[in-house]
Write a structure and sequence with these properties.
The complex is a heterotetramer of chains A (about 90), B (about 325), C (about 90) and D (about 90). Chain B is an all-alpha fold and about 325 residues long. Chain B has two domains: about 1-85; about 130-323, no CATH class. Chain B has helices at about 1-25, 30-50, 55-75, 90-115, 125-130, 140-150, 150-170, 180-205, 215-230, 240-265, 275-300, 310-320. Chain B starts with a helix and ends with a helix. The model of chain B is unreliable at about 305-315 (pLDDT under 50). Chain C is mainly alpha-helical and about 90 residues long. Chain C has one domain (about 5-90): Helix Hairpins (Orthogonal Bundle). Chain C has helices spanning about 5-25, 30-50, 60-94. In chain C, helix 1 runs antiparallel to helix 2 (about 30-50) and helix 2 (about 30-50) runs antiparallel to helix 3 (about 60-95). The longest helix of chain C has about 35 residues, at about 60-95. The N and C termini of chain C lie far apart (about 60 Å). Chain D has helices at about 1-25, 30-55, 60-90. Chains in contact: A-B, A-D, B-C, B-D.
Chain lengths: ~90, ~325, ~90, ~90
């Protein structure tokens, strides 16, 4: 069963990883900080997907918890970037 | 076939993490460096998952991908926005440093390859497995942290306490955030309770599945960061006195348990038979609270506004004036 | 075919060297803190890669436990360094 | 059989991710990129979740997968809002 999943899911995982690499080019190029942040958002969503695929391929249900934590914190970095402190105009 | 595909996945992941690390440290533009560092942390969490280390992946997902990015982004606000980039030291010093780094890396790689070739078949991993049933927990990582190498963990908590004291000593908190708008406010409203519940869940399952005090503490701290980002200046931390108790409770409970068992004729931190599970849970609860408070305080960046209404504010002002 | 642990330990060594070089050469405090974090992550990667024992065996829990505490200590140390840096800047401004 | 259907759904999900990445790279400004990204990758993750739920074989796991997807949706909606808001603020100043 698990071996079966490995064969079925490995190719999708590789392709997903490649799209994440592609998206990261935007983080390198910018130009603005917000553009780079978008690329990190994509990496976060893709990372959740990849973790779920890994959980099934490796037979490690605990990795679903990791994906859950990543999903919970997805908005934190964007908020840390954009929220304004009391002194900001 | 499967093996080669795994190899390819490993090569892409390893190549990407090195490329991101390189790009993050090679950026003269700090904004770029920090965003790439956050991406680096995310990728590292995936790599821990790939290397069968779900305990680490949990901690990294909360800390590497969340907390440290938030910390660095907050620090970025203090950087002067002059537009000119300070960048790197150049010239012969740079060349010498590059050569030095290459030599160090080469030496480490050489040693690793030798260690890899001459690997001792008897590993600590086997000892961990053999004694696991006496450790009081069935998650090997928790067993190592709180039973076999409890001394290490005690000292680690002491290091965290020292860091927290240092942060409290150097100055007041960063300015608070403006109150959240309706959309982000709603997100904080739903997310914070969820983070706390899942933190509690991770603390509980840590005995037999990936999770434990460090992951739970990190999640509680993430809840505090979300609260602060939503406009709560104290990040949900209690008043100054309770805060200090929370900071020391990890080390205090750890040492008390260690000393209490010596009364029964055992060595320091050598749990009596049958009691390990309960004692470990007790220490872990205290450690979770201490870790969460330390990390939340680290994000706030100093004594929280709640604790500044007393004499200390005046003291800080006087101190500032005398500088 | 390559061994998984070897791939990741080499990546770890590379990150360690990159971080070390940048920590010595960066001229801003924030850049140095960033570089030290990358350097530390490289060390963690070497540790965990050495703990990996193939898909069928349970990995070595000892390096995992060390790295787990390491991650938490690293972020606290980073926070302390950032707080010190902020205080230094304020002291310089006054 | 069901496993192949699941894989097919997952592959469709990944093609949405690919579309999002390409959009992120090729589109001309921040707002269009934001638009492409947040739609494509959320749908992509949704399809991955559906595919995996088909082979998970347990209700609890399916619920957990759905919860993760909903959280990502909420998180990315909030992030997109925050980023767009900040970009607009920058333009106005």
């Amino acid at each position: 069963m698990i071996i079966n999943h490995q064969l079925l899911l490995l190719i999708p995982s590789l392709l997903l990883l490649l799209t994440m690499v592609l998206g990261l080019l935007r983080a390198l190029r910018g130009p603005s900080l917000q553009d780079r942040m978008l690329s990190v958002l994509l990496l976060g969503t893709g990372g959740v997907g990849l973790l779920l695929l890994l959980a099934f391929m490796l037979g490690q249900p605990a990795l679903v918890d990791v994906a859950l934590v990543l999903a919970l914190l997805a908005a934190m970095t964007a908020a840390a970037l954009t929220r304004r402190e009391a002194g900001d105009d | 076939m499967v093996v080669y595909l795994w190899n390819l996945l490993d090569l892409v992941l390893a190549g990407l993490v090195v490329a991101l690390g390189w790009a993050a440290v090679a950026s003269a533009d700090l904004k770029r460096g920090i965003v790439l560092f956050i991406a680096f942390g995310l990728l590292l969490a995936i790599i821990w998952a790939r290397l069968n280390a779900p305990d680490l992946a949990l901690a990294e997902a909360a800390i590497g991908a969340g907390l440290s990015g938030a910390l660095l982004l907050a620090a970025l606000r203090d950087e002067p926005h002059t537009g000119d980039v300070i960048g790197f030291t150049r010239g012969p010093v740079a060349w010498a440093t590059t050569v030095l780094s290459l030599v160090v890396a080469g030496t480490v790689a050489w040693a690793l390859l030798h260690a890899h070739a001459a690997a001792d078949p008897i590993r600590l991993a086997d000892k961990v497995t053999v004694h696991l049933e006496h450790s009081g927990v069935s998650n090997p990582v928790t067993a190592v942290l709180l039973n076999y190498r409890a001394y290490d963990t005690l000292l680690e908590l002491a290091v965290l306490l020292a860091a927290a004291l240092g942060i409290m000593a150097v100055g007041p908190a960063r300015p608070a955030y403006k109150p959240a708008g309706p959309l982000f406010g709603a997100l904080v409203y739903w997310l914070v309770p969820l983070l706390i519940v899942i933190g509690g869940y991770l603390l509980w399952v840590g005995a037999h599945a990936p999770g434990g005090a460090f992951q739970a503490g990190a999640l509680l701290a993430a809840a505090a960061v979300m609260l602060r980002l939503g406009g709560n200046p104290a990040a949900g931390l209690p008043g100054p006195v309770a805060q200090r108790w929370l900071l020391v409770c990890g080390v205090a409970v750890f040492i008390s348990v260690g000393l209490l068992v010596t009364v029964g004729g055992h060595a320091f931190l050598q749990y009596p038979h049958g009691w390990s599970g309960m004692l470990i849970l007790l220490i872990e609860i205290a450690a979770t609270l201490a870790i969460a408070t330390t990390l939340a305080l680290a994000y706030v960046g100093g004594t929280t506004p709640a604790s500044q209404g007393t004499l200390s504010e005046q003291q800080i002002k006087n101190h500032r004036a005398s500088d | 075919m390559l061994a998984t642990d070897l791939i990741y330990s080499i990546a770890g060594v590379a990150l360690f060297a990159l971080g070390l070089r940048a920590a010595l050469l960066h001229r801003t405090l924030l850049g140095r803190i960033l570089a030290i974090n990358i350097c530390g992550a490289g060390i963690f990667l070497v540790f965990v890669a050495l703990g990996y024992r193939g898909p069928d065996l349970v990995p070595d829990a000892v390096p995992h436990a060390l790295v787990l505490t390491g991650i938490v200590v690293a972020v606290s140390a980073t926070a302390l360094a950032l707080a010190l840096g902020r205080r230094l800047r304020e002291a310089g401004d006054e | 059989m069901i496993e192949f259907i699941a894989m097919l759904i997952i592959m469709i999900g990944i093609s949405f991710f690919a579309a999002g990445s390409i959009g992120l790279l090729r589109l001309p400004d921040l707002y269009t990129r934001l638009h492409a990204l947040t739609k494509a990758d959320n749908l992509g993750l949704g399809l991955i979740v559906v595919g995996l739920a088909m082979i998970s074989g347990s209700l609890l796991m399916t619920m957990k997968l759905l919860l993760i997807w909903i959280l990502v949706l909420a998180g990315s909606a909030a992030s997109a809002h925050l980023i767009a808001q900040q970009a607009l603020r920058r333009e106005q100043n």
